[in-house]
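User: Fold this; tokens only.

Assistant: Input:
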Amino acid sequence: MKTTTPVVLVHGFWHGSWCWSLVGEHLAARGVASVAVDLDGHGLKSRSPRSRWHRPFDPSAFAAEPSPVAAITASSAAASLVEQLRRIGGGRPCLVVAHSMGGAVATAAAERAPELFAELMYVTAFAPVSGMPAAQYTTLPHNAGELVGSGLAADPASVGALRFDTGDDTRRRTVREAFYNGDVDEATAEAALSLLTPDAPAGIAAESITVTAERYGAIPHTYVVCTRDNAIRPDLQRLMVREIDAVSGTPTRVVELESSHSPFLSQPAALADAIQESHAAAHRREGARVAAV
């Protein structure tokens, strides 16, 4: 990790560092070291509502219980991510690869500590650089046809979280179609559904993020567009690319995959290829910077 640019993999809502395991294998085979982290409220940092475990299960209680992760915001999650990047890279800039709502956290972290970012790669991710909260992007006409909203089991404004009940057959099918959309094999999709955290902090999606050309805009960006995505629709992904370009010093490199919302499961080798290309470019930039000093 000391001889090359560290790669840090950031998951989206409901997922955890586990979702990057296949990509990590492909990166290792290419000689690229990577570390997947858990965002606040997810993975080993997750907390479930107590009603999830009550037997008999009471759907109405589950839909009403305030979330134990309701206090988490984009700013607080970004502060944690910055500390993770500083620890992993030892203060050196990292290639940060962010998926879905992880993109909102990474965006805030990049503005907070641009010196820790060699590049920010979005993978069908939210890049709320216009000042509009990520949650508001989901309501735009560009996102027509998304399926995430219909899979929710509680009112986010009431419980403070976007809550899934994957034990409910109808909602489980909806969530599977939203995230894994027929191109993730059945066994892997079912395993992933079973690993999802029930509560994703609504405060991350609800917070407006301010970025500047001098800080966030000075970082190179790549965006991986997934053309079969039922969670963040392709038109919305392309809108966010245009908004990144409006504040960025260099055009966003765009890679397109014919994939669902989860290319880390459906096309891990192709996604690893895209990451490797960004990693090589980041390494060249770092070499040129050192040579110029």
